[in-house]
Q: What sequence folds into this?
């Protein structure tokens, strides 16, 4: 039997009723039993400021320790002004510091971007990819996951309303699992 993979999920949206968070939970629901996915909260991370490294905030320490332990990272992001939300960028910065001690280094990653709009947060997806290249995270290339119309793809309980969408999201997770195993 294959080793269970510990996958941290970073959701860029902080909103309680976030479509992106609902999608992340639905993705976890179609992942194989050999993947353990956990959404790691980012809302309480103080904004990155190198001066705070002298007395590292407990939230930074806990976040860094959790990400350091995982096998891989799934980023789920909405799009704000054709880029990633500030909270997501802050989480990336917190995890990448202090210089030379990035918790992201060599962690396999995947990006799923989502929007009620038609282009599925394409801009945010690609901006995030730029950061992940610098962070040395091998990032899944295919299938590309720009989920447009996300507000209509899940029911009130967070279940997929379309078999086609469920099939596509299952394929993303199956491919991501293989990617993790190849790149660990």
A:
């Amino acid at each position: 039997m294959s080793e269970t993979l510990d996958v941290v999920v970073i959701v860029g949206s902080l909103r309680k009723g976030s479509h992106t968070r609902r999608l992340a939970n639905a993705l976890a629901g179609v992942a194989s039993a050999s993947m353990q996915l956990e959404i790691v909260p980012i809302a309480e991370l103080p904004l990155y400021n190198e001066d705070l490294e002298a007395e590292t905030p407990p939230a930074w320490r806990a976040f860094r320790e959790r990400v350091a332990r995982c096998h891989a990272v799934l980023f789920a992001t909405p799009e704000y002004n054709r880029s990633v939300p500030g909270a997501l960028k802050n989480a990336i910065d917190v995890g990448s510091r202090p210089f030379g001690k990035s918790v992201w280094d060599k962690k396999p990653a995947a990006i799923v971007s989502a929007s009620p709009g038609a282009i599925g947060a394409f801009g945010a997806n690609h901006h995030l990819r730029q950061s992940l290249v610098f962070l040395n995270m091998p990032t899944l290339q295919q299938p590309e996951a720009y989920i447009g119309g996300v507000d209509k793809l899940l029911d009130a309980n967070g279940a997929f309303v379309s078999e086609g969408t469920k099939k596509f999201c299952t394929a993303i997770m199956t491919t991501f699992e293989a990617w993790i195993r190849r790149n660990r």
